[in-house]
Write a sequence for this structure.
């Protein structure tokens, strides 16, 4: 006991939380569940890449492990646990992600994690496992994880991050508590992005239309030249469908950006289907690419657009699952398929 009675003084956090303001409500809701003892042992954290999902998982892990979490709304930054976390050496925190040079989280990684979680906590508190992308597990890894979800250890929390809930097996989903991160106040997000950028722009407006649930992705799109590249790519696809470009040439040109291209194609399909059904160009998000979009709609009828959409979703799903496919060949096949669709499903006047 202190001679000065300072054991009765409130603990004051001296570390500023990195949590994004749009995720604050979800964070507080999870804290309330934790404090009431009603929190599930496994949290399925659903959020788009660029939504601040990683930061949320990091901040909540810090707070749970912090020795002063009962008195604070964020990790204090000064206790032994916080210092260990900052140093990346906390013995009760386990971050599981795809290893460099790999495409999936291996079963051996999961087995090692399970073994560690079965041990007593080194800091006499909680143990936290943060799986950065649970959809990157393969079938054997899922099976290994399932037993831990069915028979959880006391004072053990698993955070299972994902961008696509449908890519996670139902057996894993059913044994987890879903927490979806939603970005609701678009005006506040726009003001935040304008403040960070210093001004507004048409690229920023487009980015927010394309990525309403991913503020950081919208920021990258607006600031890093992706808006210009996306526009160039859309015109190249229009030229391809008109027979004015070669599939293999475009495949080689855009291969370094293939993941972005598949995402752009998936986003573009919304405008294409809208334009094909309504003929209202004022409703599309990609206003600067209106000419290219109208050209694509003239090149493919509705059935052709729907079949193209299916192929785009298929390839993007393989990319997101980090499936060990030959991405270059799959990309070439998609663009060749575009030319075949243009021949088979040409829109008639």
């Amino acid at each position: 006991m202190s001679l000065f009675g300072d054991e009765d003084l409130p603990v004051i956090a001296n570390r500023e939380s990195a949590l994004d303001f749009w995720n604050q409500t979800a964070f507080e809701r999870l804290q309330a569940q934790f404090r009431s003892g009603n929190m599930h042992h496994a949290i399925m954290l659903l959020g788009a890449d660029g939504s601040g999902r990683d930061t949320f998982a990091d901040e909540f892990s810090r707070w749970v492990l912090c020795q002063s979490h009962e008195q604070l709304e964020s990790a204090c930054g000064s206790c032994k646990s916080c210092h260990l976390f900052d140093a990346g050496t906390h013995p009760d925190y386990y971050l599981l992600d795809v290893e460099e040079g790999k495409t999936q989280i291996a079963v051996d990684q999961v087995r090692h994690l399970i073994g560690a979680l079965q041990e007593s906590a080194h800091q006499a508190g909680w143990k936290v496992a943060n799986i950065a992308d649970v959809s990157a597990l393969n079938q054997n890894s899922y099976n290994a994880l399932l037993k831990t979800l069915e028979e959880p250890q006391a004072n053990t929390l698993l955070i299972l991050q994902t961008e696509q809930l449908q890519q996670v097996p139902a057996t894993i989903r059913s044994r987890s508590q879903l927490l979806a991160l939603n970005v609701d106040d678009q005006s506040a997000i726009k003001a935040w992005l304008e403040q960070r950028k210093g001004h507004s722009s048409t690229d920023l407006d487009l980015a927010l239309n394309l990525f309403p649930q991913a503020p950081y992705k919208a920021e990258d799109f607006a600031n890093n030249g992706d808006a210009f590249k996306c526009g160039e790519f859309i015109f190249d696809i229009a030229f391809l469908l008109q027979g004015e470009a070669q599939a293999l040439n475009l495949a080689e040109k855009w291969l370094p950006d293939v993941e972005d291209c598949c995402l752009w194609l998936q986003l573009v399909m919304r405008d294409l289907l809208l334009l094909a059904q309504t003929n209202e160009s004022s409703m599309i998000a990609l206003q600067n690419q209106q000419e290219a979009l109208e050209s694509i709609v003239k090149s493919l009828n509705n059935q052709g657009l729907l079949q193209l959409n299916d192929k785009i979703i298929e390839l993007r799903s393989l990319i997101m699952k980090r499936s060990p496919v030959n991405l270059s060949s799959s990309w070439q096949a998609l663009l060749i398929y575009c030319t075949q669709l243009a021949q088979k499903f040409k829109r008639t006047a």
Q: What stands out?
A: The CA atoms of residues 220 and 226 lie 7 Å apart. DSSP finds 15 helices and five strands in the chain.
